[in-house]
Amino acid sequence: MEKKKLWAAGILLLLACLLAGALYLRFKPEPETGDKHVTVTVVHGDGSEKEFSYDTDAGYLGEVLEENGLISGEEGQFGLFITEVDGETADEGKEQWWCITKAGEMVSTSVDGAVISDGDQFELTLKEGY
Known about the structure:
Layout: H1 2-27, E1 36-43, E2 49-56, H2 61-67, E3 71-76, E4 79-85, E5 88-89, E6 96-102, E7 105-106, E8 121-128
Parallel strand pairs: 1-8
Antiparallel strand pairs: 1-2, 3-4, 4-5, 6-7, 6-8
Domain Transcobalamin-like C-terminal: 63-127
InterPro entries: Transcobalamin-like_C
Protein name: DUF4430 domain-containing protein
């Protein structure tokens, strides 16, 4: 009896995961087509800020920033992990990392998955501590 309950729970969990994946694929944000103006503010480790503006037809933030040489990084299982922005490299020994925010709210995807729309404002901030 206990084994049947365990199997049933496992199957239900698997079905829930499949449903969640299907719903995500169905309703995930799609990039706008056409020209867009995007602003990116870089907040360096010393607190200084530098603003960059781009006019692009790209759909994702990563495309724009890589094309223009603002960022570089390493491809990982979740997309591009940013290691350098505007010439400043995050120091792993100090647990530094680049945080991506959009209008002050943390982005829940990698830079590759961050969909852009006309007028969007992003921030790349060097953070310390995981």
